[in-house]
UniProtKB/TrEMBL annotation:
This is Tripartite tricarboxylate transporter permease. Keywords: Membrane, Transmembrane, Transmembrane helix. The keyword DNA damage does not apply. The chain crosses the membrane at residues 12-39, 59-81, 108-131, 137-161, 168-186, 198-216, 358-378, 390-406, 413-446, 469-486. It holds the Pfam family TctA. Residues 19-438 form the DUF112 domain.
Length: 501
C-alpha cells in the first residue's frame, strides 16, 4: 500500500506545475508568517477561494505549503524584533530575541531554519511510515486526556518560572484569570464582560502576545540608544555555526519534533501549546547549568522543531476522521471537500496517492525552507543594527495593523496597547512572561475539557484515573509539581543531618 501510494505521489508531484505551486506556497507562507497578526489561518482563508481553478492535488499542496511556510516564518519577527509572527513562535522570542540583542541574529535565524526543517522532516517521515497506526492512537484521546494535557502544560509553570517561583505562579494565575473573560459555551453565561458585547468572545490571545512581546519590548528599547543588537551583528560564519549548533543537539531537535507531532495530532491543541511544552521540556531536561531566556540556542531549537512538527501531526485527525487538528487544518479540510476529496478511508484507499503527495510535498517544502532560511532570511539580520528611533514606530504601526486584521475588532487594538504596557512592567519587575502566556493559552482548553469530562462522569473525578492514558498523564503532572517540592523540603533536612554529624 505504501509503495504504490508513494509511486503515485511522485508522479503527481513531478507532473505539470505542482512543484511550482509548492514553491509559491512556501514563499507566500514565510511572508505571511513573518508579519505579526496575520498567520497561517488568515493566509489560507484568503487563498482558499483562489484555488477553485486548480486541480485537487495542486490546490491542497499549495494550501499545505502555505501552512508549513507560515509556521517557520513566524520565527523571523520573533527573533529580530521580539514579535511572534504567529502564536506558534511565541516561545522562540524567549531565547531567539536575546541572541539578537547579543549581535547573534544570524545565528538565531540559521538555527530556526535548520531546526524547523529537521524537526519537520523527522515528523513527516514518521507520519508516512506510521499513519495507519497513529490514527488508532488519536481515537484513544477524549476530553479527559485533553484536559490533563492542558493541566500538564499549566503545571510546567513550576519548571519555566526561573527566579521567584511565587512571581511565576502569580503571572500564570493572572493569565488563567484573563482566559475566563467571555462567553464560554460550556458555562452558558457571560463572565467579566462588563455588559459589553465586545468582550463576549474574550481576549484574543494572539493580540495579547503581540502586545506583551512587541509593544512591551519597544517601550523598553525607547530608553536605549542605537539598534536592537547592542554590539553590532556578527556576520562571519554565523550561518554555519547555527547549523552546527542544531546538529550538536540531536536529542533536543528530534524530541521536540516528535513532541510537536504528538500534540499537533490532538484536535484543538495546536502549535501554540506544542512549542511551549517542548521549550519547557528542554528546560526541565537540561543539565541545570544552562541559562534559558538569555540567548540559549537550545531554546530556539526546541520551539522551532516543535512548531513545524505540528504541521505533520495535525494532518492525522484531519485526513483520517475529518477532525481538524488546528484552525489552519480546518481551512485545509474545507479545501479538501471543495475539490471533492472526502477525509476518511477514501484518502487511504482510492486516493492514497494524493495523500502521500501531500506528505511528500511537506518533505520537499522543509528542504525549501532550509535553503531559503539559510541563504536569504539570515540576511535580514541587518535590521537589528537599524537605529531604534526608526524601528520602534514601524513595529508599533505594523503590530497595531496586524491586531486589527485578527478579527476586524478594535478591542484587539486596545488589547495590544494595554498589554504592551503590562508586558513592559512584567519585564521590569522580573515576572515570568512564559508563565503568563501558558496560563492565558491553556486556560480555555483546560476549562472546556474539564467540564465535558465531568459531564461524562456525572461529576466523578475518577474519570481522570480510571483508564491507562489519563492515569499516566495524572501521574506525570503530580510528579512534575511534587518532585521540586520534595527536593525543596529534603534539602534543609539533609543539611541539618549533615551538620548534626
Amino acid at each position: 500500500m505504501i509503495g504504490s501510494g508513494l509511486t503515485g505521489a511522485i508522479n503527481i508531484l513531478f507532473t505539470g506545475s505542482t512543484l511550482g505551486w509548492l514553491l509559491v506556497g512556501i514563499l507566500l507562507g514565510i511572508v505571511i508568517g513573518a508579519i505579526p497578526g496575520l498567520g497561517p489561518n488568515l493566509g489560507l482563508a484568503v487563498v482558499l477561494p483562489l484555488t477553485v481553478r486548480l486541480n485537487g492535488p495542486d490546490a491542497i499542496i499549495l494550501l499545505i505549503s502555505i501552512y508549513s511556510g507560515a509556521m517557520y516564518g513566524g520565527s523571523i519577527a520573533s527573533i529580530l524584533i521580539n514579535t511572534p509572527g504567529t502564536a506558534a513562535a511565541a516561545a522562540t522570542t524567549l531565547d531567539g530575541y536575546q541572541m539578537t540583542r547579543q549581535g547573534r541574529a544570524m545565528d538565531a535565524l540559521s538555527i530556526s531554519a535548520t531546526a524547523s526543517a529537521v524537526g519537520g522532516l523527522f515528523a513527516i517521515v514518521t507520519l508516512i511510515l506510521l499513519t495507519p497506526y497513529l490514527t488508532t492512537l488519536v481515537l484513544l484521546f477524549g476530553s479527559p486526556e485533553y484536559f490533563l494535557i492542558a493541566l500538564f502544560g499549566i503545571a510546567l509553570i513550576t519548571v519555566v518560572a526561573r527566579g521567584s517561583l511565587v512571581k511565576g505562579l502569580t503571572a500564570g494565575a493572572f493569565g488563567l484569570l484573563l482566559s475566563t473573560i467571555g462567553f464560554p459555551i460550556a458555562v452558558g453565561q457571560p463572565r467579566y464582560t462588563f455588559d459589553t458585547m465586545l468582550l463576549f468572545d474574550g481576549l484574543n490571545f494572539v493580540a495579547v502576545l503581540i502586545g506583551i512581546f512587541a509593544i512591551g519590548e519597544m517601550i523598553k528599547l525607547a530608553g536605549e540608544r542605537g539598534g536592537i543588537a547592542k554590539d553590532g551583528v556578527d556576520m562571519d560564519g554565523s550561518v554555519i555555526s547555527g547549523v552546527v549548533d542544531v546538529f550538536r543537539a540531536p536529542i533536543t531537535t528530534i524530541k521536540s519534533g516528535y513532541i510537536g507531532m504528538f500534540i499537533g495530532a490532538i484536535p484543538g491543541s495546536g502549535a501554540s501549546i506544542a512549542n511551549f511544552v517542548s521549550y519547557a521540556e528542554t528546560v526541565r531536561s537540561g543539565s541545570g547549568d544552562e541559562e534559558y531566556g538569555s540567548g540559549n540556542h537550545h531554546g530556539v531549537i526546541a520551539s522551532e522543531a516543535a512548531n513545524n512538527g505540528t504541521v505533520a501531526g495535525s494532518l492525522i485527525p484531519t485526513f483520517s476522521f475529518g477532525i481538524p487538528g488546528s484552525g489552519s487544518t480546518a481551512i485545509l479540510l474545507g479545501g479538501l471537500m471543495m475539490h471533492g476529496l472526502n477525509p476518511g478511508p477514501e484518502l487511504f484507499t482510492t486516493n492514497i496517492d494524493i495523500t502521500y503527495s501531500v506528505f511528500l510535498s511537506l518533505l520537499i517544502g522543509n528542504i525549501v525552507i532550509l535553503a531559503v532560511g539559510l541563504f536569504f532570511i539570515t540576511k535580514t539580520s541587518y535590521v537589528t543594527v537599524v537605529n531604534s528611533n526608526y524601528l520602534i514606530p514601524l513595529v508599533i504601526v505594523f503590530s497595531t495593523l496586524g491586531s486589527l486584521g485578527l478579527r476586524g475588532n478594535w478591542l484587539d487594538v486596545f488589547t495590544v496597547l494595554f498589554f504592551g504596557v503590562f508586558g513592559f512592567f512584567l519585564m521590569t519587575y522580573d515576572y515570568s512572561i512564559i508563565a503568563f502566556v501558558l496560563g492565558i493559552i491553556l486556560g480555555p482548553i483546560a476549562e472546556e475539557n474539564l467540564i465535558r469530562s465531568l459531564q461524562l462522569s456525572d461529576g466523578s473525578l475518577m474519570i481522570f484515573v480510571e483508564e491507562p492514558i489519563p492515569l499516566l498523564l495524572t501521574l506525570m503532572t503530580v510528579a512534575l509539581v511534587g518532585l521540586p517540592l520534595l527536593k525543596a523540603i529534603a534539602s534543609p533536612i539533609r543539611r541539618y543531618v549533615a551538620s548534626a554529624r
